[in-house]
Amino acid sequence: MANYPGEVGESASRLMTHSPSVDDGRIMVEEVLGAAHKGQVSEETRRVWMTNLVGSYVLHTAKTLHGGEYQMFEERRQPLLVCGLPDYSVGFLAMEKVVGRISGDEGDNIPFLHEGLVSAIDRATLGSHALIV
To answer: pLDDT of 49-62, one tens digit each?
Structure first.
């Protein structure tokens, strides 16, 4: 996922190495927004931050609605939400669709992606596996 520059990167690293408190999250958000406002980050870095922010929101919303647990999908280097364990597994990846949508591809429709997750959960049977991308 993202590589955060400078002081922002140090905050992100702190959050990755221990369980973040609410204050840690607030500090990181403030540092990211401050760096963006001051022009200390490139357009590419802003795109990466937006991808991570929106992608995390999509995954968190899906987890709130359907339960599940986060795992890392190593092949694609992005977080994966897995719903239905231990009875079945429906994996849900959002980052690639978010990148596509930010790039202007209307085919990478986030509500449609979520509908695919809901449909896969509704169709899941004991021992079945699905991946929604």
So the answer is: 888 888 888 999 99
